[in-house]
Amino acid sequence: MESWGRCWLSRAGRLWVSCNEMAGGRKVNRRALSLQAALGNPCILPLQIVQGGLFKKHKIQLTYSARTSLAEAWNKISFTGQLFSTSHTTVDPKEMKKFQLLAHKWWDEQGEYSALHSMNDIRVPFIRDIVLNMRNDCPLGSPLSGMKILDIGCGGGLLTEPLGRLGASVTGIDPLEDNIRTAELHKSFDPVLAKRIQYISCSLEDLVEETSETFDIIIASEVVEHVADVEMFLRCCSEVLKPEGSIFITTINRSQLSYILGIVVAEKVLGIVPAGTHEWEKFIAPEELERILESNGFSVKTVKGMLYNPLLGSWSWIRSTSINYALHAVKSCAQEQSGPSEPPLETHKAQLQTEASIGSGC
User: Which residues are annotated as a binding site for Mg(2+)?
Assistant: First the structure.
């Protein structure tokens, strides 16, 4: 928070609050609070800090009585919920422009997305087998039946469709409308998939408020290296995932080898993917990804290295995670609610007490 003005709460005063948004570092618009209190008559007034939209309404409940100092009132402020502002997004506009040009080529198995088509040979069994090992009731022929899956950055539905065929109810989201149109068109050729899959053109943060703890499984395959804010992205994943739900991620390590093979060879020499598809700086090491996941209430269970053979056009599992890797993590049952940490609160209360002793008047 940037500042809380010096003032005393009087019988029918107005309190102006100026602060920084606690979750995004952006300023929240100054709000006026009408305090309607009679002398000696306490009043409880909810304050909502709002800028744009909030995924979860952040409420500040202030209990005060007339002739109460601001420092004393601060002690009675309680915070509930988490704050995510839509003024900050996980979507990177530069990435949108890249994929906009290829929106009609998702289902060309020999085209720019050929490596993703062949990746299904290992990533689909990876997801299926882990889920089977965690479930006690698995219908034959439909191992993912009854599971609600969110496929983030679904593109044209390359991974969404096989998951639907395994019996899952899948929601595929992508911020590019052209990608969703391609996915919808391809889905329409299979009546079974039409019942199991729905596509939505939106970002992950758009879903958070309406789908809190809705999904059993989240898929973020070849997505993390394209988002604008990895930490916010994974916080949002935690919000929409049920307790004990699973998240599956495939992405690229940030290493010297990944630069040589993933950028120079794959994009500039062999043309496996279009030049400029990836930015090495946005790759993320498994250790870093694990740290962020654990800070958001996840427990990482599996990390496996992946290798693409451009001559055979196939993927295989390897021990090394220095290039591509797949990760599985589980959300903990009980998660601590995020909020202001103790040291900042103590610091601000000390500041308020000092300011309140200087004088009265706003």
Answer: 222, 225-226
